[in-house]
């Protein structure tokens, strides 16, 4: 199985991957909403970003609503801001039943994202990244974040039930993204920032670990099983997502349903022939030779765990999920995180996406990038990035400054 | 003498049912509602706020402690109203237009209630017009606005302008907060106070009306 740390080592220089997505809409003169709904446009926006800025990998646009929308929650789509989920109706395990009849993959906007990834696969020859919401954050959208937070103390069974169900949804979508051509999948888990390390392990980490195992067929970086049997990655049906965590609380039949669905998906995906196109429209002459491990084992994506906000207290716990990389936000002290993190887990970050990338001058951006690079000089397991997704209005001269300083 | 230690411990651990029982027991033993409020509820909530500030407890613990506090407050409320105990003050609070982050706002609300204030919560995605209406009808001492997105911060300024236009600016002290908000920004937009966290917010509010 390809690991992010291998990609970093093969590159032989610092990889530079700002979380670009929304600014691509500027290049196609489109609204964010249009990109959400139109996969051809979405892919075009991303390809133009790659042409314009030459990052070492390209993620599509961040979105925390697509999975919840697929489950039927009401979502608002502003033209130039990210979509948001407007109601959080789940109060009991019984309320969950209504969501279990749906296959999230049948949703039009989920399909639009999968299609966008397929198109990115055809056109890009830098590693492609997709996003999937984290199970705890999806549970927060189903229940309301404050309700979920309280339930971690007052009704742990409810939390396990909801997060377990959400894990199955995430697995299903992540596998589809992998089959569509995602080399990396970042799990977006912002709502976990406010958990204590212990609560994180119990209600979030265990499920992320299950998700990663299910998607990669491997318990990941810090897992017990080495990267042996990877060929059957996506159709390894050994256990359920989050099984380790869920056995304690009993499973639901939806889990079985999603499981069966996962098998279906897995075998489908195994049949898709994977090509690494040198013909991509956005190829780059100085691209590091990082296609190697990807070709060797096409269908297994590298898994990244992204949590925004101050996660200084969770770095070790995040490593223990088996994620190949941790994408951490600007409040985190990266040198400290590097001392705490498993050296095989790549730290990705963490220039302030708003305070620096939107509000500073190019000189200010250069200074921030330089300071971070200098600080991270002793550490191999580092990819220069932004702390979170860059807003639509990020000035291009600032992204240029970021890329240029990062490649000096 | 009623021993508040157990009641405070129950509140700190978020045991709502127990806090309610302790409040009832204290009343039955003849302790005054106001004393229970101050010694049992407010004192315990202050401890929780301090621990939160120091990262000894996290958001879920604060939320359940606050819920336990409400359980106690429900018992005392009719008595407090009857005895005409003066509230520490009144706060109208909401998350600004376009913004749906409400955890921080809820914590601020709870710390104010925990400190004996009356709080009117307008929820999330609150427009300047709605804030102005609430200030007009509720006549609060404080207006609190929370913003977690840089894109929604300007709505705090618009609300302050709208208060001025409505002739209400001098009737209320405006407090602002939320992760991207700074004290510099607060003074730039003409707010009266800023606090980086929920328990300091109460201190700031007290400071603003000191000597009044
Ligand atoms: C949890 C979370 C969410 C949850 C919200 C759940 C909920 N119901 O609140 C979900 C997943 C739904 C979410 C959605 C989004 N989020 Co969000 N989210 C966060 C996160 C990780 C934590 C926020 C939080 O609750 N913190 C814990 C509380 C306790 O802290 P707090 O709110 O700061 O409050 C404290 C103080 O600030 C103060 N305070 C707060 N309010 C007030 C008010 C007054 C009067 C006073 C005195 C004090 C005060 O006291 C509080 C307690 O001590 C932050 C990361 C961060 N750095 O904060 C991002 C963050 C706020 N989100 C962000 C973004 C971009 C979004 C989305 C646009 C994401 C997307 N691409 O879809 C959407 C927007 C939704 C919307 N329209 O509002 C960005 C904002 C960037 C920016 N600066 O503009 C952040 C900073 C993450 C990041 N680095 O990118 N998010």
Poorly predicted ranges of chain B (pLDDT <50, ≥5 residues)? none
Oligomer: heterodimer
Main β sheet profile of chain B? 5 strands, parallel
Measured by residues with Cβ under 8 Å of the partner chain's Cβ, the largest interface is: A-B, 21 and 19 residues
The CATH class name of the largest domain in chain B reads Alpha Beta
Radius of gyration of chain B: 17 Å
State the domain count of chain A: 1
How many separate structural domains of chain B? 2
Major sheet size, sense and barrel closure of chain A: 7 strands, parallel
The CATH superfamily label of the largest domain in chain B reads Cobalamin-binding domain
Architecture (CATH level 2) name of chain A: Alpha-Beta Barrel
- Fold-level CATH name of the largest domain in chain B: Rossmann fold
Stretches with pLDDT under 50, minimum 5 residues of chain A: 222-298
Q: Roughly what is the average pLDDT of chain B, rounded to an integer?
A: 91
| Proportion of beta-strand residues of chain B | 5-15%
Offer a quick outline of the entry:
Chain A is of the alpha/beta class and about 400 residues long. In chain A, about 45% of the residues lie in helices and about 10% in strands. The longest helix of chain B has 25 residues, at about 60-85.
Structural write-up:
The complex is a heterodimer of chains A (408) and B (212). With 408 residues, chain A is an alpha/beta fold. Chain A has one domain: Alpha-Beta Barrel (TIM Barrel). In chain A, 47% of the residues lie in helices and 9% in strands. Chain A has 18 helices and nine strands. In chain A, α8 (135-143) packs across α10 (156-180). With 212 residues, chain B is an alpha/beta fold. Chain B has two domains: 4-83, Methyltransferase, Methionine Synthase (B12-binding Domains), Chain A, domain 1, CATH 1.10.1240.10; 90-208, 3-Layer(aba) Sandwich (Rossmann fold). Chain B has helices spanning 5-12, 16-28, 33-53, 59-83, 103-114, 128-138, 154-165, 183-188, 198-208, and strands spanning 90-95, 118-121, 142-146, 173-177, 193-194. Chain B has a five-stranded parallel β-sheet with strand order 2-1-3-4-5, with helices on both faces. In chain B, α8 links the parallel β4 and β5. The mean pLDDT of chain B is 91. The chains are: A alpha/beta (408), B alpha/beta (212).
């Amino acid at each position: 199985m390809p690991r992010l740390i291998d990609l970093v080592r093969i590159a032989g220089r610092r990889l530079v991957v700002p979380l670009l997505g929304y600014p691509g809409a500027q290049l196609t003169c489109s609204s964010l909403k249009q990109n959400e709904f139109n996969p051809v446009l979405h892919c075009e926006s991303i390809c133009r970003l790659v042409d314009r800025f030459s990052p070492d990998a390209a993620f599509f646009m961040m979105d925390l609503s697509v999975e919840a929308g697929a489950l039927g929650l009401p979502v608002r789509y502003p033209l130039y801001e990210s979509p948001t989920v407007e109601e959080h109706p789940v109060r009991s395990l019984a309320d969950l039943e209504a969501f279990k009849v749906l296959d999230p993959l049948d949703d039009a906007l989920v399909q639009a994202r999968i299609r966008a990834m397929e198109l990115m696969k055809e056109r890009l020859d830098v590693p492609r990244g997709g996003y999937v919401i984290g199970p705890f954050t999806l549970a927060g959208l189903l229940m309301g974040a404050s309700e979920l937070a309280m339930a971690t103390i007052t009704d742990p069974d409810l939390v396990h039930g909801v997060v377990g169900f959400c894990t199955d949804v995430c697995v299903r979508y992540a596998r589809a993204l992998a089959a569509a051509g995602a080399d990396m999948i970042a799990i977006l888990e912002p709502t976990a920032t406010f958990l204590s390390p212990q609560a994180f392990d119990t209600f979030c980490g265990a499920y992320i670990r299950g998700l990663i195992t299910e998607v990669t067929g491997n318990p990941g970086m810090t897992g017990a099983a080495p990267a042996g049997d990877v060929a059957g990655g996506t159709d390894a049906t050994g256990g359920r997502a989050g099984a380790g965590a869920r056995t304690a609380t009993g499973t639901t039949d939806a889990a079985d349903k999603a499981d069966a669905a996962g098998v279906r998906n897995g075998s489908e995906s195994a049949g898709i022939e994977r090509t690494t196109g040198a013909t991509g429209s956005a190829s780059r002459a100085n691209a590091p030779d990082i296609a190697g491990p990807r070709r060797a084992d096409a269908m297994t994506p590298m898994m990244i765990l992204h949590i925004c906000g101050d996660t200084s207290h969770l770095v070790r716990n995040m490593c223990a999920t088996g994620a190949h990389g941790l994408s951490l936000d600007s409040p985190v002290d990266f040198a400290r995180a590097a001392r705490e993190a498993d050296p095989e887990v790549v730290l990705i970050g963490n220039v302030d996406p708003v305070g620096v990338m939107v509000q500073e001058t190019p000189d200010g951006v250069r200074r921030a990038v330089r300071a971070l690079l200098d600080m991270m000089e002793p550490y191999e397991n580092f990819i220069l990035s932004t702390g979170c997704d860059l807003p639509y209005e990020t000035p291009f001269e600032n992204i240029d400054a970021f890329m240029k300083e990062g490649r000096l | 003498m009623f021993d508040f230690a157990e009641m405070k411990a129950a509140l700190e651990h978020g045991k709502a049912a127990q806090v309610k029982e302790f409040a009832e027991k204290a009343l039955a033993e003849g302790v005054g509602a106001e004393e229970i409020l101050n010694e049992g509820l407010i004192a315990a909530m202050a401890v929780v706020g301090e621990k939160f500030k120091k990262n000894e407890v996290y958001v879920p613990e604060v939320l359940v402690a606050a819920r336990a506090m409400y359980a106690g407050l429900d018992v005392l409320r009719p008595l407090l109203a009857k005895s005409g105990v003066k509230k520490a003050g009144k706060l109208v609070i909401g998350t600004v237009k376009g913004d749906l982050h409400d955890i921080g706002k809820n914590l601020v609300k709870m710390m104010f209630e925990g400190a004996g204030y009356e709080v009117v919560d307008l929820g999330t995605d609150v427009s300047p017009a709605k804030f102005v209406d609430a200030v007009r009808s509720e006549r609060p001492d404080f207006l609190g606005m929370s913003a977690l997105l840089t894109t929604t911060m300007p709505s705090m300024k618009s609300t302050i302008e709208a208060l001025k236009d409505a002739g209400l600016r001098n009737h209320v002290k405006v407090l602002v907060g939320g992760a991207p908000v700074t004290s510099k920004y607060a003074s730039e937009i003409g707010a009266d106070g800023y606090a980086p966290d929920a328990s300091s917010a109460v201190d700031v509010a007290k400071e603003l009306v000191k000597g009044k």
